[in-house]
């Protein structure tokens, strides 16, 4: 894919088009905040809308459900749309949906707003990776994606705690108004800095079954599902797990450290991914297995637990970039539809981990979470190790 302006001249050895890529970073930041920030505002939302905290939590579920539901069909439906126009439409929905969430006193209306935001979020995730890759040459695609996806750990590191603070200081509605304003400002930024892609380059060349049959696509999706499932099995229930590990008083500090560690992990992946993608995937999975096993076997060792939390954060921080780059490399011109499948698989794994984690917590206790996660991560590592010819190739990546 080629933009319709000279931004991609960086493939000749110049620097990355940072103005455009940072706009995509902000898009991934807002998309992540749409899904994660409400979780830190449940008490205020529950009081404001007259529901229980469990009911308020369904606003998070509605957004995630909309994202997973929309990714494949809406990406296919709008495959011929210019990418910038589609991104602007999604950002407009972010602005309107968050403003509606802030303004309404009706829980059903808020639920509908979060669901519609989820639809736009699914489309956004499906196009960001391909957009970032299209702005640079093959040798810089991994770094470009790392910049674009840096919004994910940044939202977790800064968005969630700042959202909680703003909600406690100025009320939960102010948080959604702030997200709406960010989306509105970003629309202007996108128009100013992000080039449009030519219509002829947005055509989807293959149907979904053909894309899934492409060598390398299925191993990446398998690793993705296991990796994300295992991560959120522990992260969704990090509060009871920290209590079991003896870190209950430090929940907010752990969340901040986790977010900052994820930012560092994503930065390291961005520096190394174009030469060491396979090695990074295997190293991250091995580190996560060791961390989960350490949690399970040494819950009373505060030093090991502290180190494990940092290793967990750094190993997971670059996961979205690693997996999306590997998938896009194999899908090639059909990266858009492949990314839509990734979004759906991600959200299914997210939802499934919550269900299984809750059952394990009720029946076996928090100590079961890292045990099961270790098994899932080890399986993911085995699949990645076996996929040396299609999926996670060794050597310097050149893209497609």
Number of helices: 17
CATH architecture of the largest domain: Up-down Bundle
Inertia-based shape: globular
User: What's the CATH C level of the largest domain?
Assistant: Mainly Alpha
Q: Please tell me the total number of domains.
A: 2
User: What portion of residues is helical?
Assistant: over 70%
- Beta-strand fraction estimate: under 5%
The sequence of SSEs as H and E is: HHHHHHHHHHHHHHHHH
The gyration radius over C-alpha positions equals 20 Å
Q: Outline the low-pLDDT stretches.
A: 1-13, 199-204
The CATH homologous superfamily of the largest domain: MFS general substrate transporter like domains
* Class inferred from helices and paired strands: mainly alpha
Which descriptors apply to this entry?
Growth Hormone, Chain: A; 17 helices; disordered N terminus; mainly alpha; 2 domains
Structure overview:
The chain is mainly α. It has two domains: 187 residues, Growth Hormone, Chain: A (Up-down Bundle), CATH 1.20.1250; 179 residues, MFS general substrate transporter like domains (Growth Hormone, Chain: A), CATH 1.20.1250. 76% of the residues lie in helices and 0% in strands. It has 17 helices and no strands. Helix 7 crosses helix 15 and helix 15 packs antiparallel against helix 16. The longest helix is centred in the last third of the chain and has 47 residues. It is globular and about 50 Å long. It starts with 17 loop residues before the first helix and ends in a 14-residue tail after the last helix. The relative contact order is 0.15. The N terminus is likely disordered.
